[in-house]
Amino acid sequence: MSEAGRRTEIMEAVERLLARGGVNAVTMRAVATEADVSLRLVQYYGSTKDELLGATLDRLADKSIRRWQARADRQGPALGVIGAFLDEALPTDRASRDLHRVGVSLEGLAITHPDVAGRAYRTHLRGLADHLADVLDAQGVPAARRLACEVMAIAHGVGTLLMADQLTEPEARSLLADYLDRLRPRLSTEDRAD
Amino acid sequence: MSEAGRRTEIMEAVERLLARGGVNAVTMRAVATEADVSLRLVQYYGSTKDELLGATLDRLADKSIRRWQARADRQGPALGVIGAFLDEALPTDRASRDLHRVGVSLEGLAITHPDVAGRAYRTHLRGLADHLADVLDAQGVPAARRLACEVMAIAHGVGTLLMADQLTEPEARSLLADYLDRLRPRLSTEDRAD
DNA sequence: CCTCCTTTGATACAGCTGTATCAAAATTTG
DNA sequence: CAAATTTTGATACAGCTGTATCAAAGGAGG
């Protein structure tokens, strides 16, 4: 198999481990087992653990932003864009729950390794915020970046409460629907120039 | 020194380590050094690491809820209560930043150890949500618990963005002020019965 | 004084960690 | 086929981890 392919496989194994058991579950030997590959090969690509972890996190940030871009580029009304973002961010199915867990791991990692993981985390968040702000701004929404951050904040927070069993999925959805209702009057350009 | 005093000192050392370097920084030997005590004594109280960690997390949840209760029991108008909550939760000074880091550690720990840390985390969140919901409900706010969760969500999310340098402190404050502005019409009982 | 509680010291052990190093297969590629 | 690349195997090592076990010192209260 080609070099790039193997590297990808290995980084996918790292992602899976992150999603399942957090940062502590990512050991070189565990990665080898998860990728169904010898420990020696994990060393062969991505020589050090930090390099491997860093590359995985960068890849993750890229993927996350790219995925959201693909979905949001069919621009609807601003409210629809925000609704789609919230819907996408909500950890309801297996995949999005895994993604949320990876995000939490990354957030925690940013504390321990501000240089490696912190940079990836900031890149991730900044990319999402920039893109969301751009889309909103293009629709004439006032104070677009501030709103983008607010939407990201509530998405993250509600996701956390959902993962911690403080909200059921229907409760989370109706909470966000309420939130969107209150947001509606602020989304038109002529309503208020900030 | 009395038994309870030492135990408290040790758990405070655990908290400090959590705030500084996340979960991985909490080793028995590091706790001993941080508490300026011998390793043997850390074993003497809180025999197992899991027990020590669990007790610390429980204590933390208690403290956090109690602190917020003390502040919110001087009941003002609903908007003021929510504003106070947001203000308190915002990681601006050293202490609240440390607290936020501990919270992130706890959140991540809830993934790795759903039994020990997960329980403490849920207790923490539930306690905060219950109390906030009670206060709001007593003021006649409709759908109080849902709103309580929403406020907690945005507080957590904005805190995360602030810690990750995606928002400056003034930006975060004006974001929350905007949010509160939109919330105001919904806080009176006669405005809308949900 | 003597007994109980607290505290320390030194040290051990097995387990997991990242990393390194030998040679040797297996596979792909020219 | 031959050469280069990819992959494995078997270990090794030093470091940190939680936990355990020895004896002994220090202090408080009866």
TrEMBL record, chains A, B:
One Pfam family matching this protein: TetR_N
Record-annotated DNA-binding residue ranges: 27-46
Keyword DNA-binding: yes
PROSITE patterns linked: HTH_TETR_2
Ribonucleoprotein listed as a keyword: no
Top-level lineage group: Bacteria
Keywords: DNA-binding
Gene Ontology MF terms in the entry: DNA binding
Residue span(s) of domain HTH tetR-type: 4-64
Name the record gives this protein: TetR family transcriptional regulator
Organism: Actinophytocola xinjiangensis
